Amino acid sequence: MPPSSPRRIAVLGATGSIGRSTLDVVDSHPGRFKVEALTANSNVEALVALCEKYSPSLACIADPALGAAFERAAKSRCPGMQALAGPEGLVACASHDSVDGVMAAIVGAAGLPATLAAAAAGKTVYLANKEALVMSGAILMDTVRRSGAALLPIDSEHNAIFQCLPQNSSGLEPGGTLADKGVRRLLLTASGGPFRTRKRADLASVTPDQACAHPNWVMGRKISVDSATMMNKGLEIIEAHWLFGAAREQVDVVIHPQSVIHSMVEYADGSVIAQLGNPDMRTPIAHALAYPERIESGVQRLNLATFAGLTFEEPDLQRFPALALAYAALEAGGTAPISLNAANEVAVAAFLGGGLPFLAITDVIGGVLERAAAERVEGLDHVLEADRRARALARELMPLARELMQESRACI
Ligand code: NAD
Ligand code: MG
């Protein structure tokens, strides 16, 4: 039975992969959800078209330079809608009184202020924007605790783990320990990405399109490259640390190329509970949007008989150093995960723009982690300052990483 009044949601990053999957789930449940706010980065036409379809009360184009164009288009095509622009507009959409739940699906550090604003305003936060949590884990979890916001993970692994943990009808409980729940460890599954079976030397000249051709998931380009380097799993280790209060030794990664088991929880008695499903983000999205109810997601039913087998491997930290870097950042704590994330964002953007070889991505991140001291996080300004410093350092290191890569290729 749908609830009597619709759940009013904001979709931050509505034009992206998670944003579109969210709206697809919404479309299959007329009357259950009301889209109150929508945001996009720079595609004015796509945002206005979504506004025409969903009639939100407010919408925001993140790029301030496009504010006038968005306002003009909105005025004629979406009369009565509040058309906003820039970072303040994103925050306004995330924290507006008429919004109950916020899909935080902006990619990267750019999503942090709006995600934090949603938590501070006591909304139900559907968290896809893992980078925000990696950067500001203690602050975000503390904000959720203080404001009484609810937090529901969208990342398929964390959504799976949440489903495998003892259920609490209000969402995650920030502050609870895994030991209290009888949990021994969390097992994050990873597909291994498009280069799982390649030798490291063969990765020297891979192109952005090859890196983005994920075998099981269709995603935005940044997270697709993260999956190819396995930094996505690295970020997810840190994400699991904050969401579930898991210590470093309580999070393990297992390669599972079929992406059918989305993650597992091992209990003290030896039981391992897994969540399975076809690899389609509409499952975790539908789970979170309707939580604690269960609704149709539009995802094809899982037919295990079509799989020749479900297989598992140990991750290879030599070929995929990103995992080791993420574990190191988690152990160092403080600002180290901020540096890891910032360096990764800069290096991935450079790779996608054709300005950095694939293998140099992790070299740049390693270089930044070596040089940026891990400081105790003193507050949000400190987070943003550490992010800026790590980005500057990454840009400084890129020419050297490029050169070293060229020299080593000349030696092969
Ligand atoms: P995407 O690139 O497809 O979409 C990103 C969205 O954010 C777009 O709407 C874009 O307009 C907006 N955006 C980009 N830069 C922005 C900026 N500077 N300011 C404001 N808005 C901006 O990305 P995606 O694949 O949908 O991923 C979104 C988030 O969800 C990421 O944090 C990713 O790690 C996470 N996630 C994605 C998937 C997936 O399957 N795609 C799975 C798990 C987690
Ligand atoms: Mg994931």
What class, by secondary structure content? alpha/beta
Give the helix proportion (percent range): 40-55%
Beta-strand content estimate:
5-15%
Biggest sheet features: 7 strands, parallel
The residue ranges in which pLDDT falls below 50 over 5 or more consecutive positions are none
Number of strands: 11
The pLDDT mean sits at 95
Q: Quickly count the helices.
A: 15
What spatial order of strands do you see in the largest sheet?
4-3-2-1-5-6-7
Give the N-to-C terminal Cα separation. 64 Å
Specify Rg, calculated over alpha carbons: 21 Å
Outline the structure in words.
The chain has 412 residues and is an alpha/beta fold. Helices cover 46% and strands 14% of the residues. The strands form 2 sheets. Strands 4-3-2-1-5-6-7 form a 7-stranded parallel beta sheet, with helices on both faces. It has a 4-stranded mixed beta sheet with strand order 9-8-10-11, with helices on one face. α1 links the parallel β1 and β2. It starts with 6 loop residues before the first strand and ends with a helix. The chain binds nicotinamide-adenine-dinucleotide (NAD) and magnesium ion. The site of magnesium ion has 4 residues, from α7.
